[in-house]
Amino acid sequence: MKKFPIQPGDMEITCADIGPLNSLTGYAPATPMKDGLKRFVALYREFHSIE
Fold first, then answer.
1. pTM (whole model) above 0.85
2. DSSP H helical segments within 1-51, as ranges?
3. Are 29 and 21 in contact (CB under 8 A)?
4. HSE toward the beta carbon, residue 38, CA cutoff 13 A
5. Three-state DSSP class for 4?
6. How many CA atoms lie within 13 A of 13 on its CB side?
7. Which regions in the chain score pLDDT beneath 50?
8. DSSP for residue 6
9. Is the Cβ–Cβ distance between 51 and 45 less than 8 Å?
């Protein structure tokens, strides 16, 4: 995977606030961050054929 330098307009740090989404839709994530990250890494490795 080729990594590019940060581009004009790219955000270096983001902090999502799902409070408004929760208020409007009742959405509340049920997957703990640690589990979600493990699943994402497994999916990424599978997709890119990385062992």
1. no
2. 19-25, 33-47
3. no
4. 5
5. coil
6. 1
7. none
8. P
9. yes
